[in-house]
Amino acid sequence: MSQDKVRLSSMAHGGGCGCKLSPAVLSTLLSNTSGEQTFKQLLVGTETGDDAAVWQVDEHTCLISTTDFFMPMVDEPRDFGRIAATNAISDIYAMGGRPIFALAILGMPLGKIAPERVREILEGGREVCQAAGIPVAGGHSIDTLEPIYGLAVNGICAPSELRRNCDAKAGDVVILTKPVGVGIYSAAFKKEQLSPTDYADMLATMTALNQIGAELARDAGVHAMTDVTGFGVLGHALRTKLGHLWRRCRSRAGLPAVATPDTDRPADLGRATRRLRTGPGERASRDDPGRRLLFSQHCRRDARGHPRHRRLVAQASARNHATGCCACAAPV
Known about the structure:
Number of helices: 12
CATH superfamily of the largest domain: PurM-like C-terminal domain
Number of domains: 2
Mean pLDDT: 76
Largest sheet: 6 strands, mixed
Distance between the termini: 45 Å
Strand order of the largest sheet: 1-2-3-6-4-5
Shape: globular
Strand content: 15-25%
Helix content: 25-40%
Order of helices and strands: HEEEHEHEEEHHHEHHEHHHEH
Structural class: alpha+beta
CATH architecture of the largest domain: Alpha-Beta Complex
């Protein structure tokens, strides 16, 4: 097959955030970092597996830094660039900040993919950066066996608006700002079982910046936030970022989340793709037998609206703030 027609997704052994190392592997790799030198200005490091690192510059400003890159889960180069850039920039919003500039991270298998298609990937990423109001100020590129693209993004916030994943309070409501199930859509696409309509739906969700995070961070009733990608809601709740919210907020009902898919398509596609190799998030959830999460109906109608056009950000807020936050998170 020519370099102009090869499927990008066929060049990668995994796609999107499903390429992430499992939580168990990460725990092993980071297990010897506890004795490292401490820095007073480092407000967020590796301790809680948050969305970004945060350094307090002065009493008014925090610098937020994150890197995010992965292999393609779609075949259109421009779409791949848009998805990867959205994923990286959204980590800044999930910390309560606003992005200020980005650097591109690029790895391409030279000789297997046409330069014109690589340029389209970069253009897709630049398009999302323009939508966020930031420049791509540089980057780094290497020759790799599989396509890789992403961004290193810097942002800023006021110290009072910083939102970590570990500051939820007992009794808080966990709000998901869009329906879950994108990973199932992606699996169906890889098996060529996703319709054009469903693909457009998936793409709209995966390229929508979660700018709502910066707005919610100004609300003192929102105690914690995190971006839920890669391991799925269950994977995050059991072992990773969302787990910090869950452990603080949980009651006898388990994870008091709101916002559910407004169609049955994820379930239908899940049955159609049940034989596809699972990602680390699903395996992480499956490896914890007996642990179950139940979803409350609190604010369900308010949160549903049409939230599928928002990137999924989980926020922990005081129960009396939940309805207002749901209304804020739903697009107009």
